[in-house]
């Protein structure tokens, strides 16, 4: 069987076009199997450890569901912080221990670079499920999978990333991954929360058109895909500034009236109020399908790493 | 295969006599299979999510054991409160997400009506494992199953419900479910903790004899089944009143001396001191068997909803 | 199939030589099967409950991995304290309840003797995963398994136990178990943290040579196996005394220069700084292999108790 080019999933920019093709095709196969209730057992007898040093029920369950749907088993640690680490154990030692129990390790950790440390500690596959402000590569893959599925194809799309683009790990990784395709970007944020220059320049270096604006309405009329993220109050030095801006980045059925009928609306979830619930019934409201896509995409990754 | 009349298990009063017959017969089949160690795999490849927004290890493990005993898999969230909900996500959104991972959802939530909200959010089966002071329908089913099994038949029994009948979710639901049968009720409580009038009237409207008393001894001599529940100190405005009453509602081997030899003693557990441990060895002490009955009853529900 | 001489695993001294032979041989068979990725299913359809009243991710995962590797299922309670016990339920009642859900119970509890209480409450196997300052018998078995495997044979070895020998549950149980073999002991500790007299005398009564010293360097030159444990600051009345001593019980690549080339270095983990990380690459650094050995040893116990 064809394999991924690396044994670990650590960063969104690690994937070759061949890797991405392999993952998305495999995910589509699994999604079709799940849809007809077909029982899969490719990973029967295999054990996955999910090691979460900060809580993320959504991501943990998505990985665990992926493993179970392939017939595998799960060792679950949702409260890793309150364990050996609290007795002073290093992450390296924790990983050296867990590799004795499992065939692959999913790690969520508050510190940037933690997944790389873990991958160096073990010959077994490590999957980064978020390392602080760093990377969350499986989220980017499921986002890409969703765009491709909802729009039929990624090439030529105009994609708006909206919200706090400065601090959002999700949008950085997604922009990086999408920069492998001939797309156009609209980065929509308050001036103080603009996309980091290196992300913009990396996209432009690939020949991608990047426009930046603080006007969501303007972006909507041109977008094939709009990817909403949350603006957190605590990011603002001045709470008055937050209150002035927050409503400008809320998507409603009314504001979507100006958009293309075929627009796809995405969100990494959980949402608070960035998307009004009156949007949920629109055919292009893809965020819950996007979340569900995490299962076949992670099934593909686990199968390619473990099979 | 015959199915339940509803896709969700939300309330004790939702079950038709046909549903109840179906569930209890199926549960008896599973109990017999478990007793001889027969391996079942009707739900192989299926995934159950147990989503507990307040802790209840007993109920969570009972549902998870039921799923595992049928060959299925479990996604377990014992600390749902510390998850997306803490980031401001609505229960509706949480359920829309979890339905992407699992084939059915067990929900425990501190708010009355939470299970109905969840059921409306998803087309997949939702099983209410307790919603605050509201309902706990699977507990009532296993109580009914236990009475039928211990006494051979429900019809004609005199059943005492004892303790804090005012606040007890368990006894309200059980009384509702038992009101489908020709039984007699003795409601035994301090005057301030009597059964709500609507529960009494609902039973009487079905032609059931209801007597209320504060004298446990009097009730014991007439009962085929005595169902004990806890009286909590915090329910009393006056602690002196609590201290005066609490010992009157403790079952001991001595107080049971006046009861029928065939009496069945039940308790939803955990007990603190409502039943003295010297009762445990009596043949009619059914509370641990009652707790174990939760597994075949929940197996029956899961199989009927998912198979 | 041959069985263990007792239905429960409660204490290190309960095992007959026949039991130990049976367990270690079976563990070796499983380890070989795991090494070639062979799928085992001897415990398919069986359910293990892991009930942890204090956190120990390492021990919990090791037991759960063992059960899963044999095709069994797991009910996991990593936060047992925040459950029925907090409502005033006795351990006896908790166990009577959990025996209704599972075929065997692993118990970790802060109180000495808790595992014995649990074993008396149920006819199903109870495995003690640590009861306060009491016993941790499966740790001792995996330690013994590791010594045998690393050194080829236990007979005739000189084994140093190092660190806080006064409070260390692990070293007490290991010394007890090793006293069944013709070994020599070196007990290496600060004078205030010496091995309890009863452990020393029990070994001597078996004809085993026991020497005690506070000089780690002296012990190293004579040892075939050195078993490091942690010295905790809180054990010292005088912090100055702690600071004076702590570095004397740290193993480094340099201090190991004086040891036999074939020396085996062990540690129950987690380590803080008792073994310098520059030791990790030495061929005799066995502590991560030791930790991994917990899986086949616990597989052997579960299979022998449940099959």
Explain what the structure shows.
The structure is a homotrimer of 307-residue chains. Chain A is globular and about 55 Å long. Chain A is built from ten helices and nine strands. Chain A has helices at residues 17-35, 57-69, 91-98, 114-121, 137-151, 169-178, 197-205, 216-222, 239-246, 287-306; strands at residues 47-52, 73-77, 104-109, 126-131, 158-162, 184-188, 209-213, 225-228, 264-266. In chain A, strand 3, helix 4 and strand 4 form a beta-alpha-beta unit. The first copy, chain A, has two domains: 12-135 and 294-306, 3-Layer(aba) Sandwich (Rossmann fold), CATH 3.40.50.1370; 138-290, 3-Layer(aba) Sandwich (Rossmann fold), CATH 3.40.50. In chain A, helix 5 (137-151) crosses helix 10. With 307 residues, chain A is an alpha/beta fold. The A-C interface holds A 44-45, 47, 49, 73, 75-80, 82-84, 87-89, 92-94, 96-102 and C 37, 39-40, 55-58, 61-62, 64-65, 68-69, 71, 76, 78-79, 269-272, 277, 288, 291-292, 294-295.
């Amino acid at each position: 069987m064809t394999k991924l080019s690396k044994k670990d999933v650590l960063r969104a920019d690690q994937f070759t076009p061949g890797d991405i093709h392999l993952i998305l095709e495999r995910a589509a196969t699994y999604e079709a199997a799940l849809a007809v209730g077909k029982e899969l057992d490719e990973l029967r007898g295999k054990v996955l450890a999910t090691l979460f040093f900060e809580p993320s029920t959504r991501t943990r369950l998505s990985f665990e569901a992926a493993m179970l749907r392939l017939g595998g088993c799960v060792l679950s640690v949702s409260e890793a912080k309150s364990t050996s680490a609290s007795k002073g154990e290093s992450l390296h030692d924790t990983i050296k221990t867990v590799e004795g129990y499992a065939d692959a390790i999913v790690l969520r950790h508050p510190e940037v670079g933690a997944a790389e440390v873990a991958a160096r500690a073990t010959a077994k596959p490590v999957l980064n499920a978020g390392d602080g402000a760093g990377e969350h590569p499986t989220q980017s893959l499921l986002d890409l999978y969703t765009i491709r599925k909802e729009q039929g194809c990624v090439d030529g799309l105009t994609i708006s990333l909206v919200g706090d683009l400065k601090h959002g790990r999700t949008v950085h990784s997604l922009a990086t991954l999408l920069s492998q395709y001939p797309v156009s970007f609209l980065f929509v944020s308050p001036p103080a929360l603009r996309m980091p220059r290196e992300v913009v320049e990396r996209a432009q270096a690939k020949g991608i058109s990047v426009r930046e604006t603080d006007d969501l309405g303007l972006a909507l009329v041109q977008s094939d895909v709009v990817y909403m993220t949350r603006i957190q109050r605590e990011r603002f030095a001045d709470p008055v500034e937050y209150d002035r801006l927050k409503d400008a980045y809320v998507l409603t059925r009314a504001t979507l009236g100006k958009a293309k009928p075929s627009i796809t609306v995405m969100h990494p979830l959980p949402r608070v109020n960035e998307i009004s619930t009156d949007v949920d019934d629109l055919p292009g409201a893809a965020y819950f399908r996007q979340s569900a896509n995490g299962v076949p995409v992670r099934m593909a990754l686990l199968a390619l790493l473990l099979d």
